[in-house]
Amino acid sequence: MSDLHGAMPGIATGGEGYGYTEEEWLLKKNVRQFCEEFIDPRFRESFKAETADPLLKEFIKKFGDKGYLRIFVPEELGGYGQRLTAQTIILEEVARVNGGLAIHTGENGGFALLLALELPAAFAKWGEALLSGELIIADAENSPEGQCNYSEHADIGRLEGDEWVINGTKVFSSGASFCDVLMVTGLVDGDMHRWAMDAKNTPGLKITPNPEMGNSPMYGAIELNNVRVPKEFGAKTGTVINRKKVDAVPRGKGNAVTSAALAMGAMGAAFDKTVEYLKHRTTNFQPLASLGSIQYKLALMKSKIEASRSFLIAATRMIETNHKDAVVYAPLAKAYICDTAREITSDCIQLWGCAGYNPDTGIERHLRDAVGFAIGVSTSEMQLATAAKYMRLPGAEFECV
Question: Which pTM value belongs to this model?
């Protein structure tokens, strides 16, 4: 895999002191170059129903060809077995140009790994095609009742002989309208289960695109009407038992830092574009960047971005080394970085003025992505509540998945 070997020069956002290996710096450079050359010029296509589907499939396949989808997957499952840091690097760089595509870059590899761990029969059928980018996978977890109030959720599945029978509704599934494989989670007798199914050829499965919602590509709402899934394509996840969360932390830690990496990409790109704009936009024949008030604001924004990156690296390292405090640092990093991204991208629009709302500048797109990343994988408030629990604060019991 040529993208993982060699040396790398410095990059505009982020210095050399973060402890990335030589291979990781080269990976960062190569992914950024690819995204800027082949994805950024076409980002508007991902917001149109008629072009989003082929765009997503084309670039997921390109990522698969380059090995980016299997970077974090263990070698025994057909991956490259790189540490979590490599995954955060890829997601950040893709998020700089297209938030929706970044989500799916993470999902194809991450959910393929999840299939291998929980539904090995499904991984045997679809795993390699997902890692190569031949197929696209989406996940439907959100229920109309909410995401984390499982005690209020209705059961949606039951086992009949050698088949699961599923009836229910799921909402806000990123990329569901395009996917080939769909994962669905829901309760069976109060215990959380996961099922995998053919998104295009499963009787009773209806996916309705919602082009008005979320990070592009479009979201989809899912209806399951007597959907039947082979017994081996469903299993208890262990996340919720008897309507209570019991084992959310192991998966949640990685999800938190990868979501934070997406936010890093959005605010880093918005900031870099804004700095260049202010160097050329003039007032009284002087660049706006020459004004003291603007310089102060840019320096403060830069300090917050670099603090966020250091936080991300620290939390990621703690997960990689199985540090006991990772359960605190991962949700804290997700909350802090995503909230900072919303602040930075909003400030960038302010500095662009009216031009910041022009879709061709891309700044408003980064704000939209930052808001979505702050909500995804549980909101900042939920992440902070989880951190409070593991900080052993009195009465703190809430924990997000």
Answer: 0.91
